[in-house]
UniProtKB/TrEMBL annotation:
Position of the signal peptide: none
Keywords: Membrane, Transmembrane, Transmembrane helix
Annotated transmembrane regions: 20-39
UniProt superkingdom: Eukaryota
Database matches in InterPro entries: Osmotin/thaumatin-like_sf, Thaumatin
Protein name stated in the entry: Thaumatin family protein
Gene3D superfamilies noted in UniProt: Thaumatin
Keyword Methyltransferase (UniProt): no
Amino acid sequence: MQPESGHRSSHCFPPRRNEYVAAALILSTLVPTATATVYPSNHKLYKFDYHPKSQGYQEPIRPLSKRQNPIPLIVTNSCGDTIWPGLATQSGEGPESSGFELGPGETRNMTVGSSWAGRVWGRTNCTTGDDTATCATGDCFGRLECEFSGQVPVTLAEFTLSGGVTGRQTFYDISLVDGYNLPVGLVYHPAGNTTNIPPNFVNAACIATPGYLMAPNRTGTYYTNSSFPMPYDTSQTNGGIADWCPWDLQAFPPSKPGDGIFPYPDDQIQRPVFDPCKSACASTNDPSACCTGKYDDPNVCKRSNYANAAKTICPDAYSFAYDDQTSTFIIPSGGGWEVVFCPEGRSTDILSTFGAQLQQIASSGQVTDQVKDTAMNLTYIESRPSGAANLKMPNLLAGVVAAVVAVVAAITL
């Protein structure tokens, strides 16, 4: 069916069920501490900001008429088809637009205030009017400009630019807690006080869509440069990731021939390339999947099959409520960000690779020459086990959380 006159829709991503289609660790100087439970946007206990500032921290008051110390926020579409990025502001001065159309290869340059907290996601298969956009994934109540988070499932890029006990740290992550729809990469644009952070410590990526994965290599130069090899997950192939989403969590599962009588859930039906996946919590709101009620305890709430699959595919991404310490990245405030949809390369594996170095940074408050040398050491990187092989928090990271508060002043002064 053709869109109505004056309307546009993308055809790379199947608008509905039966249509098939053919981007770190920002632990630049810190490791995350987070104690809050994270729920998907459609959950009744959902809160936007899971990394609030200390109650003792007083945020400076700035006039609304003029943005002071603007932070670059860039959105790039590397997908083969048009997407409609959505942006939601939880606090601070938001970007110039909260929703817009972005064609293949296009980039939108914006700025946000230095205390901005918000999220960015991609909407797909939208039919648009003057100020409307009805989308298959990430929909904002049918509006082009988003006022709230998009409809699940969506891959989220989340930022708190002025977090921590002093408000001088940036927290960020790639989250699959709301599910997954598009590959996402985060590229850090350093400020004057953060240029010493190795790029392979900060630029995270999650790629779980066939066709965007490059050949399996433990290291490479995607999202970094030749001096600082980026660690990647090596367990996945384009063929393998096609079936990563549990069958019953697919947003648009393909129809089963023969009256649907097939082995469940591992039937051999070919899935579409664009195969958005709901998280277990977003799909069912079950307390055991959402870590609510009697399950509101990290010792009680266990990872679901979805959380295990998502963490295997994207080791540096949030996959369920108690995933904070292997998924939240913290660096000194100041730099800008680029959110890249559909980056080519591989999912990054930064946290499990550089755990010891991040602990050293957290303890000393400095990126030492030794840490930089390790960040450049190809042999060291290739010797480290992949985070996808061990879904529990690495022991090397366990001591970092206690050191974070001490690091804040040392790094940001």
